[in-house]
Amino acid sequence: MQLITEILAANARNFPDGLALVERIPETGKRTHLTWAEFYKESLRLSRALRLRGYSRGEKVVHLMTNCLEWLPYYFGILDSGAWAVPLNFRFLADKILRCTLQAEARVMIFGPEFVDRIRAVKPELDTVVELYVFSGPEEMRPRFAMPMQALLAEGDGEAAGRLRPVPLEPDDEAALYFTSGTTGDPKGVLLTHGNLAFACEVEHRHHQQTSEDVFLCIPPLYHTGAKMHWFGSFKVAAPSVLLKGVSPRWILEAVSEEKASIVWLLVPWAHDILHAIESGELKLEDYDLSRWRLMHIGAQPVPPSLVQRWRRIFPHHAYDTNYGLTEATGPGCVHLGMENIHKVGAIGIPGWGWECRIVDRKMEDVPFGEPGELLVRGGGMMREYYRNPKETGKSIKNGWLCTGDIARQDKDGFYWLLDRKKDLVITGGENVYPVEVENYLIRHEKIQDVAIIGTPDERLGELVTAVIQVKPGMEMGEEEVRSYCLGMPRYRRPRIVHFGEVPRNPTGKIEKPLLRKRYAGIYSSFRRD
Question: Is the pTM of this model over 0.70?
Fold first, then answer.
């Protein structure tokens, strides 16, 4: 199995002038692109520059950028150098950027203009580990503490760089550190190997059968394993991909039409919005050339069967697939529905290519067929460990199986159905919201005595972040006051629904969230979407 750095080199060698990446910015009308030769050259320049400065095997390079044409070349450049790529969520605030960087002990940080203020806020602490700050953005926005990316890349063009020999990489070599957060919200570094990434590439290609004629439209953020690993299937066959910076239905259909996209990965809210725009007459299908669009697949959250049924009525020729995955399994695909299994919409599917699944009880014993239990998976995409966290690693990897923390059951046909989350994670619009982070924010309000965050069902977003607030005796609080107070949080974390009432706790002091979900599921107040 080829490593992904080897696939890139082969693509550049065999298809130097072939279109590799396109970036579309609908708001400005800007469209830029890279060929495979240009993609590889940029990656090689960064790889050589890092190695000349002593950053190779075992070193970690933080990669903090929003989606852009340079994102993937820089990611591959880090991998090619032998260093570990450490992509960070672009929604991370300064404190979490600091915690992840310190935990990784990253000596290099590559960042875009959106993060200057966040980095500056914690730079004294970052300086305890980071030696080199590299700015990828306009010169007029570059902070003085960072060198320009173009200057670093120029070092990779020099005579000394040309004499460097490639770093020999093996499947067992460490490749990337992806930070995820458990229900506590504390960052955990998921350590992936070059073999994990190569395996994910093969899984995606086996599932969706990409050819060089396909065009993949990528909208979700590249820092997440989901977007990249879905792109891997197209990458494997040197097919072009389009990075769309914007998610309105019009922009998506324009991109499909003008770029001749054949594969589009959507989140549930985006699919809902497209259908609504078409059904309401806001957009007319005859205005677009969608003839090459062959596959629509959805991931990152449970998919309502009614959504797929609506989609199939409007796009009857589309193949459909959904994937279940997690960062610890190198993204999507350890369970997938399969394009041929449209009759099983609602299930997460069957074991993906090269994967095995089990459902077990608390004693790690297989449950009787059809009964619910925790879903375990095993395959070539399993992480090596939670970096320097043997306690959490031991909880998640048991006897060679990865414990997902999700509750599922298997039907008589062998398909797995996701029932509930063992943890209290809320997934809204494909984004993970960790209740304790929102609870800790709200409890600081002078009028709030206790608070619980749960998810309640929503057809469009999957779940809505819902707050149950217990006000201090003798005080009064309204929904608008909560709304105003929550403006200090990232938008996707803010409660869309609020209830005022007692927050029940069990004898050990834990919030009884199953009781709250039973009490409030399906009950919506006026405090909804912004």
Answer: yes
